[in-house]
Request: fold
Amino acid sequence: MKKLDIDKTATNDWLQASRQGHVILMRAGRPVAVVTNVDGLDEEQVELGMSAEFWRMIEERRQQPTVPLEEVKRRLGMAKQTHRTADESQ
Reply:
C-alpha cells in the first residue's frame, strides 16, 4: 500500500499508483482517503463492494444452512424431469 501526500501529488499520480494497489492519500501526515483501482468492474460491483450493509447480508447468509441441489429441484417439482424438445412434445 502506497502513501501519497494529497497536496504534493497530482491526481494522475494517484491513479497511476492505484494500478499497483491501494493508495492512501495523506494530508499533514494523516490519512484522508483511499484510492483503489476498479478497472474491469461495473458501477454496481463497485457500489456493492463498498457497501457494509451488503457484506453484512452476505455474512448472515453464509451462516445459514445450505440446501442440496437435489432438494431444490424436488421443491421446484423438477426432480427427474427430462427436457423435451418442441418436436418431441407434438
Notes: DSSP finds four helices and three strands in the chain. The two ends are 64 Å apart (CA to CA).
